[in-house]
Amino acid sequence: MSQRLAGKTALITAAGQGIGKAAALAMAGEGATVWATDVNPSLLAAYQGVTGVHTATLDVLDKAAIARQVAALPAIDVLFNCAGFVHNGTVLEATDADWDFAFQLNVRAQFWMIQAVLPGMLQRFKAHGQTSSIINMASVCSSIKGLPSRFIYGASKAAVVGLTKSVAADYVRQGIRCNCICPGTVDTPSLQERINSYADPVQARQDFINRQPMGRLAQANEIAPIVTFLASDESVFATGNAYSIDGGMTI
User: Fold this and answer.
1) 10 Å Cβ neighbour count for 182?
2) What is the rounded CA–CA span in Å between residue 211 and residue 147?
């Protein structure tokens, strides 16, 4: 059995469901020790009995809680910033409150998480030459592609792309790789919640499918392999990249 992440410890946010959960299970399957965190502790109960996965409740909007959690964990080799939220609407429909929340969760939480784990990563590289990987959740809806009614979301995810490249540039010679993934539309519980909020959920789901050139939505376990790749030493020469995994949306 492949064990590409044997000996590595990974910390994942929003690991209770969707892409975060798929990535946690995939990394554990590759031999990593995974710390799966989520703001909703009930979602973490599903990991009971899963080899290699430990769980912890974490609100990534609480900077002090992040600092406490990271201090309580063993050395982190891989950080996957997965927490985020999708707002619907155009610039004329956007509110200051929604803008602030999106940038707090989609961007500032990643900034805080990176700030918390980076000193330890840098110390291990200086002391032992050990490299580390930071993986951020962006989106094809960002600086890569504009999508209708995604003004706030697209702006926040474009910021994630810029954040990723900046961290990569600052620490490229200090053993830190920082990349982001840019999925298209993924069939997750979060997406289903948004679909259910429409007046016609059946049509809403079909509309999401129609904008995918492959004619279907992605599954979370189809996104997880690129996260595992970026966590592994197979991607040791890759940093500062925004990896589209979008079913052809950017063809």
Assistant:
1) 26
2) 10
Active-site amino acid positions: 153
- Kindly list the structural domains of the chain, giving each domain's residue range(s) and its CATH number in brackets, ordered by start: 9-186+219-245 (3.40.50.720)
pTM: 0.97
Q: In what order do the strands lie in the sheet with 132-137?
A: 53-57, 33-38, 9-12, 78-81, 132-137, 176-183, 242-245
What is the full per-residue pLDDT of the chain (251 aa) written as tens digits? 569 999 999 999 999 999 999 999 999 999 999 999 999 999 999 999 999 999 999 999 999 999 999 999 999 999 999 999 999 999 999 999 999 999 999 999 999 999 999 999 999 999 999 999 999 999 999 999 999 999 999 999 999 999 999 999 999 999 999 999 999 999 999 999 999 999 999 999 999 999 999 999 999 999 999 999 999 999 999 999 999 999 999 99
Distance CA 209, CA 227 (A): 23
CB 31 within 8 A of CB 53: no
**What tokens does 104 get?**
């707090």
The secondary structure of residue 217, as a DSSP letter, is P
Asked if 156 contacts 102 with a C-beta cutoff of 8 angstroms, the reply is yes
Q: What residue type is assigned to position 142 of the chain?
A: S
Please check whether residue 32 is in contact with residue 13, taking contact to mean a CB–CB distance below 8 angstroms: no
Give the integer Cα–Cα distance in Å for 174 and 123: 9
Residue 49 has φ and ψ, to the nearest 5°, of: 85, -5
